[in-house]
Task: inverse folding
């Protein structure tokens, strides 16, 4: 009787048939359960709705403290682009070094004839050769084994320097 949400029914005076009263209450409970019982599709629909709402609550909670700001995203993207650029530069450098090495190997493998020695391979990165004058070392007569000393060339005295 405590389970029944309806108001309790009391036994009238004079009727002491408890078994018939129990049967009546049982029938009333079954009829009430039939009315309140939902179909399987309704139960599944409500269950999926509850699960979806629970999942949405969990994602809101997670996103509230794990979301990255736009500045942080920009910084992360910039770092990734810098790494890709460094990788590209390194691969280009490695390819150019490989080409230079192959050219040098080809030059070494070619027969050394006068025709081939006159030809020089000049690339944009090679320095332009210039002529350099090297002065002879001046050695003193007394110290032949000593290291040579480079001295400035002496200028011939002109009329102007003699007058002073």
Result:
């Amino acid at each position: 009787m405590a389970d029944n949400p309806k108001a309790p029914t009391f036994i009238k005076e004079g009727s002491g048939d408890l078994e018939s009263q129990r049967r009546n209450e049982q029938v009333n409970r079954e009829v009430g359960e039939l009315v309140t019982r939902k179909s399987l599709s309704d139960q599944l629909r409500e269950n999926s709705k509850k699960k979806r709402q629970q999942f949405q609550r969990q994602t809101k909670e997670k996103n509230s403290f794990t979301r990255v700001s736009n500045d942080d995203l920009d910084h992360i993207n910039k770092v990734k682009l810098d790494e890709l650029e460094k990788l590209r530069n390194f691969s280009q450098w490695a390819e150019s070094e490989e080409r230079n090495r192959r050219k040098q190997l080809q030059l070494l493998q070619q027969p050394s004839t006068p025709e081939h020695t006159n030809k020089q391979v000049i690339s944009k990165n090679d320095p332009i050769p210039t002529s350099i004058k090297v002065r002879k070392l001046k050695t003193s007569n007394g110290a032949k084994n000593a290291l040579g000393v480079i001295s400035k060339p002496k200028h011939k005295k002109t009329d102007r320097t003699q007058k002073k």
